[in-house]
Specification:
Layout (H helix, E strand, L loop, with lengths): L1 H7 L2 H8 L6 H11 L18 E3 L2 E3 L3 E3 L5 H4 L3 H12 L3 E3 L7 H7 L4 E6 L4 H14 L3 E5 L9 H6 L9 H8 L2 H10 L19 H8 L6 H10 L3 E7 L2 H9 L4 E4 L13 H7 L2 H6 L1 E5 L5 H9 L5 E3 L1 H10 L3 H20 L16
Helix pairs in contact: 1-17, 16-18, 17-18
Length: 369
C-alpha cells in the first residue's frame, strides 16, 4: 500500500506523512527497538480459535489496534478522514481525530459515534480551550486524548525542502508536484483545499504561514500539570494523555486522575534523540501498568508489533501511517484492507505463539523473561 500511495500522492503530502525530524534517527530507532523484542512460542496447544479483541475504557473493540490522529488528513487523500472514521466504526476499532484535522469534528462524531476519540492540542487561550471542549462534548465524543509532546512546532527537513506552507500557495514547485498526481488533484479540486476547519472561528488565515509557526503561536508551549488538572475538572468523560515517555511523567498524570496514557514519541517527528516508544513502554513500572490503561503508538507496522507491545504491557496500539497508506494507496477500500491485514497478522502471531486470547498476552511470552 505504501508503494501505491507514493505513486498517487504529491511529494509534499507524502513527506509530511512519512517524515521524521533531523536525521530521522528516531524513525529508525522505533523500528529497530521493536524488532529487538523476541517472543518465545509455546506449542502443544490447540490454537484453532483465537480471540483478537481488547477492552478499552469499558468498550470491547475487535482488535488491539486503533487509528492514530494525523493532522491535515485530507491532504494525504481527499476525504481520507471520512473514510478512516466510517471504516473504523464499521469494523469496530478506535479512531482518533486530530485537532488539526480537515473535517468538522461534528461530522466525524456522526460518522463514527461509537469509536471516535478526539485528540486535543491544548490552546494557550483558556476561553478557546473551553469552547472547543464544549463542542467536542456536544458532538458526542466519549474519549479525550491530550497530546503533550509538541511544546514547540518542529522544523522538519522534508517539509522545509518540499515547500509545505499553509495556507497552500501555488508555487511553481507545488504545481509541478500536483501535476504529476492528477487523480489527487482532481479529487482535491472537487472536495476543496484542506484547511483547519475546526479552528476557523479562533484563528485568522494570515496566522498560519507555516505549520510549525502556527502550532507555536496558537497552542501551549508546554502543557502543564495545572492545565491538565483544569481539563480533568472540565471533561467528565474518559481522559487520555498522549506523548509521555518518562515514567515520572506518567505517574504524575495518573495522580491527577487521568484514565489512560498513550506512550509515544510522536512517530519520531519531534526529537530525534528521544527514546523509541517501545523502549519507553518497557521502562513503565508494573504498578502503573496495573493502575491505568497504558497504550502505545509510533513504529507500529505489523500485527507482530502489536502483539509485542501487548506482551510489554500495552493494552492496545495505534498507527497513523499504516492506515493513511491504505486510503492513499487504494482509496475507499484501503482502510478495510489495512485492518484485515492487521487482523490476519495478529491472529497468525497468536496462533504461532500458542496464545488463544490477545488480552492475556503478557511478559511471560518474552524470550528470557
Amino acid at each position: 500500500m505504501a508503494v501505491q500511495a507514493r505513486k498517487r500522492v504529491p511529494r509534499f503530502a507524502l513527506d509530511y506523512l512519512e517524515g521524521g525530524i533531523g536525521e530521522e534517527l528516531g524513525l529508525q530507532r522505533n523500528r529497530k527497538d521493536l524488532d529487538d523484542i523476541i517472543l518465545c512460542p509455546r506449542y502443544l496447544r490447540d490454537v484453532t480459535s483465537i480471540d483478537t479483541s481488547c477492552e478499552l475504557f469499558g468498550r470491547k473493540y475487535d482488535l488491539g489496534i486503533g487509528i492514530s490522529p494525523v493532522g491535515l488528513g485530507n491532504m494525504m487523500w481527499p476525504r481520507a478522514e471520512h473514510i478512516l472514521s466510517s471504516t473504523a466504526q464499521r469494523m469496530n476499532i478506535p479512531y482518533i481525530l486530530s485537532t488539526v484535522s480537515t473535517t468538522p469534528l461534528e461530522d466525524i462524531a456522526r460518522l463514527a459515534p461509537d469509536v471516535s476519540w478526539f485528540q486535543l492540542y491544548v490552546p494557550k487561550d483558556v476561553a478557546i480551550m473551553q469552547d472547543l471542549l464544549q463542542r467536542v462534548n456536544r458532538a458526542g465524543f466519549k474519549v479525550l486524548v491530550i497530546t503533550v509532546d509538541i511544546p514547540v512546532g518542529a522544523k522538519r527537513e522534508r517539509e522545509l525542502k518540499n515547500g509545505l506552507i499553509l495556507p497552500f500557495r501555488l508555487t511553481p514547485g507545488l504545481l509541478l508536484q500536483v501535476a504529476g498526481r492528477p487523480r489527487w488533484a482532481i479529487k482535491t479540486l472537487r472536495h476543496g483545499t484542506p484547511w483547519f476547519v475546526n479552528l476557523d472561528s479562533y484563528i485568522d488565515a494570515g496566522d498560519t504561514n507555516h505549520l510549525s509557526e502556527f502550532l507555536t503561536s496558537f497552542f501551549m508551549c508546554g502543557v502543564t500539570l495545572e492545565r491538565i488538572k483544569m481539563i480533568r475538572s472540565l471533561w467528565q468523560g474518559t481522559l487520555v494523555i498522549k506523548g509521555l515517555l518518562h515514567a515520572e511523567d506518567i505517574e504524575a498524570v495518573v495522580k491527577l486522575g487521568v484514565d489512560g496514557v498513550i506512550v509515544s514519541n510522536h512517530a519520531g517527528r519531534q526529537l530525534d534523540a528521544a527514546p523509541s516508544s517501545v523502549s519507553a513502554l518497557q521502562a513503565v513500572p508494573d504498578h502503573l501498568k496495573r493502575e491505568t490503561t497504558i497504550m502505545m503508538d509510533s513504529g507500529i507496522r505489523t500485527g507482530l508489533d502489536i502483539v509485542r507491545a501487548r506482551a510489554l504491557g500495552a493494552k492496545a496500539c495505534f498507527s497513523g501511517r499504516s492506515f493513511m497508506y491504505g486510503v492513499a494507496g487504494v482509496g475507499d477500500d484501503g482502510v478495510r484492507q489495512a485492518i484485515e491485514i492487521f487482523r490476519d497478522e495478529i491472529t497468525r502471531t497468536l496462533q504461532q505463539l500458542g496464545c488463544v486470547q490477545f488480552s492475556v498476552m503478557d511478559h511471560t511470552w518474552i524470550d528470557g523473561a
